[in-house]
Write a structure and sequence with these properties.
Mean pLDDT: 83
Structural class: alpha/beta
Helix content: 40-55%
Number of strands: 26
Strand content: 15-25%
Distance between the termini: 72 Å
Largest sheet: 6 strands, antiparallel
Shape: elongated
Number of helices: 25
């Protein structure tokens, strides 16, 4: 009984009998159709009054009789009205109170936790379920004390319902909040008018979704994730091992992979000697990601006399609409991992792509088989087209220009109408371009700008993209939509942004430059390709600049390409003279080096301020190269501001993979040469962001 009394005190106050009696005559009024019904005798009296006036007009005696009848009727009805009205109102009030009591009783026993709040989120009334849930007693207690998610800012400000996810201990609820008004209740009552004020209250329902969320989580965790594992240097690793140990090496690799994946209840199937497919439940994927795919390091550490470490590529597809889509995404991910140089894992989740690993120095392939295959495929494509267009990346550098010149010569050798798309040029590229302009050996339309190329390109045109594989970085992205025959020749690692529907893609991250790749293709594409001296100089210049005078990413095939170009007439002294700088640029570089600072005893940071220089980003890249000559520096980062954009040039001797660092800022490149562009911040802020990222990556072992 005491509990019931206590609960009753939480309900809206009920007027006592004395209050009802005082309120009935004055404060409580009838309204609506019932009010009109109670006024019906008055309407009859008015009608009889009009009839009495008419009777007087027709007959005096009849009028007197009618008047007496009207007076008697009015007295009777007035007396009856005054006596009946209080009784009727009393009955209506009692009905309303009884009806409200039924409603309150239903709310009190409602299985859904329900409460009434004021506009500040204080609890005014709670039903039994809400009290039992959180031991809440309405005493101006803020609801946020129990559900921290429901602060005053979360209260509804208009008539729309709002929904929030709230938690209490082990329960998860969906809270539904809606504004209500006391006047709204009286508005629904068509019998009496209480004269109440328009007070704003908030109704709160709590719907228990604990089980549903639990089941949804279980369903999500039990979804199947598709993965592919590819040993990207299987043949090279075996060939570097003694013949008697090769079978042992293969067995160790398989055992490592199988044991690792079985630790996550995976189904692993070996489909080829160097390829595995696996299936795991999605709940295990975060565990694998948290270790950054430790299997990459475990396999790399296998050493039974193999001179080349074994490296893997892993592609994972997750959260597809069905398992078949996950399988397709895993294939896309493995291709992306291979295009980025291998020794890494790529997870594709819709448009979100995550990278893990990629720290190993890329090893140059000893065979040219792939270059020969790609050259023959390129020849077949070009022979089926009337016209060839070649374009590199925006603000084309020497490597982009040189590789475009090499492809131009291949197309002309096949008797195709060829053009190179160029808009903006750096100083060094402009000097090389002048060798071809106004030259009777070359067509006047050899070089086209963007608008000219858009007018000329059609479906019978082969578009060859060199030194870039991101569509937004190309000289003219619109050209990619004008033809279906697109070829990519590039040496940069792929990112999540790539050119779609390319019929031929030759991307080799281990290559030093695009010019090196084109030089190899020229040797296989057809017999009798002979470069002219100006063309050989342009390609040799690209090779020279991208390797920093044959220091970075230089392998045997790099020197073979240089020898091929030298045999075709490349003038080394002339190329060297092309890149001589005036005194002003020397002073700018020297000033930038003087301002340089060393971060964490191994990273050089500097700001380049090339005021009045035509190619400021080139100067910034030169400063980054200069800083690598400082003892103890493992990587350099130079920041150059041009028209509100911060250009970051990063260099290393492959002790630090600067490409991974620049990818964090939307850039990319190679492990030793990379860059990024930052907008909307100052040079100081950009430096701070890069330093913070370096420290995070060092602590996590990424660099």
């Amino acid at each position: 009984m005491e509990d019931n009394k206590e609960k009753d005190t939480n309900l809206p106050a009920q007027p006592d009998s004395s209050e009802e009696e005082n309120a009935q005559p004055n404060k409580i009024k009838l309204k609506g159709r019932f009010k009109n019904y109670m006024r019906a005798p008055l309407f009859i009296i008015i009608l009889l009054g009009a009839a009495t006036v008419g009777s007087f007009c027709m007959d005096y005696k009849a009028g007197i009789i009618s008047a007496l009848s009207l007076i008697i009727y009015s007295v009777i009805m007035g007396t009856a009205y005054n006596k009946i009205k209080p009784v009727v109102i009393d009955e209506l009030v009692n009905f309303a109170l009884d009806y409200g009591q039924v409603q309150r009783s239903m709310l009190q026993e409602l299985e859904v936790p329900y409460g009434i709040l004021d506009e500040d989120g204080n609890l005014l009334w709670a039903n039994a379920k809400l009290e039992a849930l959180a031991d809440m007693r309405p005493a101006k207690k803020g609801i946020h004390n129990v559900f921290g998610e429901l602060t005053t800012d979360h209260m509804p400000s208009d008539n729309k319902k709002v929904f929030y996810d709230v938690s209490y201990h082990d329960y998860i609820f969906r809270a539904e909040l809606s504004r209500i008004s006391v006047e709204d209740f009286s508005g629904e009552n068509n019998l009496i008018d209480t004269g109440g004020k328009n007070n704003i209250l908030i109704a709160m329902y709590l719907f228990d979704e604990t089980r549903m969320r639990k089941y949804m989580k279980e369903i999500q965790e039990q979804r199947l994730v598709a993965g592919t594992i590819f040993i990207d240097n299987y043949e090279d690793a075996l060939n570097s091992t003694e013949e008697v140990r090769r079978s042992l090496l293969a067995a160790l690799i398989e055992r490592k992979i199988t044991k690792y994946m079985q630790g996550f209840d995976a189904i692993v199937h070996k489909t080829e000697k160097d390829r595995y497919y696996f299936v795991i439940q999605q709940k295990y994927l975060p565990q694998i990601q948290s270790t950054k795919f430790a299997i990459l390091d475990e396999v790399r550490e296998i050493n039974i006399g193999n001179e080349i470490p074994v490296t893997l590529c892993i592609g994972v597809g997750v959260n597809g609409s069905n398992y078949a889509q996950n399988v397709e995404w895993s294939r896309n991910a493995i291709e992306l991992a291979l295009g980025r140089g291998g020794d890494q894992a790529v997870v594709k989740d819709h448009d979100k792509i995550s990278y893990y690993g990629g720290k190993t120095k890329q090893v140059e392939k000893s065979t040219r088989v792939r270059a020969r295959v790609k050259a023959h495929a390129l020849k077949q494509l070009l022979e089926g087209k009337e016209r060839v267009m070649i374009m590199g990346h925006k603000i084309g550098d020497v490597d982009s220009f040189g590789s475009a010149i090499g492809v131009y010569r291949a197309a002309r050798t096949l008797n195709k109408d060829a053009h190179i798309v160029i808009n903006e040029l750096t100083t060094n590229v402009r000097m090389m371009k002048s060798e071809f302009e106004n030259n009777p050996e070359y067509a006047s339309d050899m070089f086209l700008n963007e608008s000219e190329a858009m007018e000329m390109i059609d479906l019978n045109t082969a578009l060859i993209v060199v030194d870039v594989n991101r569509p937004s970085y190309t000289e003219c992205p619109a050209l990619l939509t004008k033809t279906k025959t697109i070829v990519i020749l590039d040496h940069h690692r792929q990112s999540s942004e790539n050119i779609e529907n390319a019929v031929l893609s030759y991307i080799e991250p281990y290559a030093s430059s695009a010019c090196e790749m084109v030089a190899e293709i020229l040797q296989y594409i057809t017999d009798g390709v002979r470069l002219r001296p100006a063309e050989a100089n342009a390609m040799y210049a690209g090779l020279l600049i991208d390797t920093n005078n044959f220091i970075n990413k230089t392998g045997v095939r790099t020197f073979e390409a240089a020898a091929y170009l030298r045999k075709n007439g490349a003038d080394i002294i002339k190329v060297k003279k092309m890149f001589r700088d005036d005194l002003k640029i020397y002073k700018i570089r020297a000033a930038a080096v003087e301002r340089a600072t060393i971060f964490d005893n191994e990273f050089a940071f500097a700001e380049c301020r090339p005021e009045g220089v035509e190619s400021p980003t080139v100067v910034g890249a030169q400063v980054a190269n200069e800083l690598m000559n400082i003892t103890g520096v493992k990587a350099s980062f130079v920041f150059t501001e041009v028209k509100g954009t911060i250009y970051v040039s990063a260099r290393s001797f492959e002790e630090v993979n600067v490409q991974l660092v620049m990818e964090k800022f939307g850039g990319g490149g190679h492990s030793a040469i990379a860059g990024a562009q930052l907008t909307g911040i100052s040079v100081e802020a950009a430096m701070t962001q890069v330093k913070m990222q370096l420290r995070i990556m060092k602590n996590e072992g990424e660099i």
